Amino acid sequence: xxxAVQIGIDIINSxxxxxxxxxxxxxxxxASFDGCHNYTKDVLRALYxxxxxxxxxxxxxxxxTEQDNMIQSPHSVDPATELPVYxxxxxxxxxxxxxxxxxxxxxxxxxxxGTRVYTFIYTMALCMKKAVKLRKRVVVLDxxxxxxxxxxxxxxxERYTSFVGMYPIPMRHGMTIGExxxxxxxxxxxxCDLEVVRMRDYRRERYxxxxxxxxxxxxxxxxxxxTAVVYPGQVIFEGTNVSEGRGxxxxxxxxxx
Length: 257
Description:
single chain; alpha/beta; 5 helices; 20% helix; 12% strand; globular
């Protein structure tokens, strides 16, 4: 194995000036940690202290405890930091204005799985749109695409856009979450004040098990790299009356009725 990829949060560890000088919010979950397995929220708290003011969670909750696909997560308080956790998969899919009142910069550190219908990228996009309205800065900490830079599949017909397909991108899009933020911001016209903390030593052809990092399930039914690899095709069964294996030990690797 060659040298491990330096992901965005690792870069912040060595160059803390990127986020210095303002109040911070963090959009992440339990799969967001650095190369030493420290949660991003704890890294930012150690580096910036009370400047970290709020946490935001995507689908399945901040700790990934919501098993079912469409179950909403309530707002809560993080027991370790005592910070508010605003759920962006609750009665709203986008942040309400007041959630950004106490921050100047929203930091995004999310483990995307490289498939168009995985909702984390759209939670990020909606936060970027809110940042434009409220004149906030967005900093995305980049992470590898776990299923490489390969591109496969059709585009969304723009008549059928939704929270599982907001933009016309391929089913297997081949991009990192930082690259996706740049695409949304530029090509799709969000236009927020955006900075992407790029990785070092990242090679697009590698799968996640070749990056030197540990795969941590970003959601309850995404337990392994194998799950992520089959997901772009198997997730389509959710549109039928066939089970895609949720709740088993091999979700999306098995299906049936």
